[in-house]
Amino acid sequence: MLYFAHRGASARQVQNTVPAFALARRLGASCYELDVHLTQDGALVVHHDYSLQATAGADVLLKNLTRADLQKYPLVNRFDNQTLFVPELKEILPRVAPDLQLLNIELKNDGNLYPGLEKRLLEELYARAPQMLSKILFSSFDYDTLARIRELDKTARIGLLTRFFDVSLALRLGAESVHMNHTRFTPETAQVCHRNGLNVYLYTVNEAPLAQRLAEQGADGIFTDCIDLFV
Known about the structure:
Elements: E1 2-6, H1 18-27, E2 31-38, E3 44-46, E4 51-52, H2 53-56, E5 58-61, H3 89-96, E6 102-107, H4 117-128, E7 136-140, H5 143-152, E8 157-161, H6 167-173, E9 177-181, H7 187-195, E10 199-203, H8 208-216, E11 221-224
Parallel strand pairs: 1-2, 1-11, 2-6, 6-7, 7-8, 8-9, 9-10, 10-11
Antiparallel strand pairs: 2-3, 4-5
């Protein structure tokens, strides 16, 4: 089983921030998951939602902000007194690079909200972290986003995020894995994936007994907020 630190050690630090990933690494993580968006001025930033409403109490969209604008919106921090802001991807990469096994980068790009996101992301990785490329897994709920990644880089590792399992979509992309909510997972799903050379990674699993049961049913990995339970 692979255990992905979901948005870093997000049960113990503000999700998708530098401290969250730094803590995950200190706790022993070697697999991580994060989400990327594109700001108005072309910065790749790490955040889950399209808006800052839930994380900073501001009803603003990341696509309408510049990297400088992000410094106006401190993130809600219930863990300690640190003042934290939405980080750029370039701040996170060095934190997860040592002893990295796998980094799952989810492209938040439903409906191609960020035209050019795929090209911009690959350029950033080629420039800043070429040694990490073989350990990066690109995922998205948006099929066309992953198709554009595949077109731009024939060697890219791809994981299809799906709410409605269809193995043919993963095979068409040349994906290596299928990612889905653990509540939709069945042993039959694992069997179909494994017959077709695909791994199955499940989110979000924060209890050890549940993780054990899913592993017994054929899951190959989980995304967890509580990485310290598993590594």
